[in-house]
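FOLDING PROBLEM:
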Amino acid sequence: MTVVSSPPSLVAQAGDRVAIRRGIVLKIAAVTVFSIMDMTVKWLSARYPTVQIIFCRSLFAFVPLAFFLWRNGGLDLLKTRRPGGHLLRATVGAGALYCFFWAFGHMPLADVVAIGFAAPLCMTAMSVWLLGERVGIRRWSAVAVGFVGVLLMVRPGASTVEFAALVAVLGTLLYSFGIILVRKLSETERSGTIVFYFTIGATVVFGAFLPAVWVTPSGTDAALLVLIGLLGGIGHLLITRAYQLAPIAVVAPFDYMAILWATGFGFVIFGELPGWATVAGSLIVVGSGLYILHRETVRARDA
C-alpha cells in the first residue's frame, strides 16, 4: 500500500496555524487572569495598604515561576551579565505596580485599564530617544491623536479624580519605560531571567516597607492575597508562551479585551460604569494603538 504524505510546506503551514491558534488562546487566558487579579486588588485595596498587596503579588508569584524555572533550565536561567540593568528594570517596574494598584483603589477599574492602554503610544515615543528607532509622521500622528484620548480620560480639573488619573498616567509611563528596558535586556538575557529578577526585586523593595504598614488579614483575605500572587505569576507565564507561539501583530490586539473584563467586573462587583469621557477616550487610544501596531507590522514586513 502506498502512503501519500502531505507536502512539507502544507504541513508547516498547518503547524503554524495550530501554533497561532494556541497563542491566541493563551493570550486571551492571560488577559483574563490579569483582569481577575486587578479586580481582586481593587477588592482588597479598601482594607489593606498598597505596599502589602504588591508584596504578596510578588512573593507568591514565585510559586508558578519556580515551575517555569524547573521546566526551562533551572538555576542556569538565573545567570546574568547585566545586574545593573535588572536592578533598574525592577525599580521602574515596582513603581509602575504601585501606581496602578493604588489607582485601582481610588477610581473605577475600567478607567485605570483604559488609561493603561496608552502604553503603546508612550513606548513609540520613548523608543526614539531610548532605542534610537525612527518613527515616521504616521506613527507620530497616531501618538498625538492617542494623547488627546488620554486627556479626555484624565479630565483635567476634576479634583480628586484628576489626581488618581494622573497616578494611573504615571504608572503607564513607568510601565512603558520598563518595557523599553526589557527590550534592551532581551538582547542578552532570556525572558525567564528578566521575570525572575523583576519579581525578586519587587519582593525585596516592598518587603522592606512592609513592617511599617502591615495589616493582619482575615482567613479569606489572606487567601485572596495569595491568589493575587499566583494569578500574577501564571499570567506572566501565559503571556510569555503566547508571544512565543504567535506573532506580536496577531496576539497583541487581544490586550484590549481587558476593558470588557474591567467594565464587567466594575459594574457587577463595584457598581461602576465608565463615563462618556472614558468610553470616548479609550476608543481613541485603542484606535491609535492598533494603527501603530499596524504600521509596525508593515515596517517589519517591508524589512
Observations:
- The chain has 13 helices and no strands.
- Residues 19-302 form one domain.
- Residues 1-12 have pLDDT under 50 and may be disordered.
- The two ends are 47 Å apart (CA to CA).
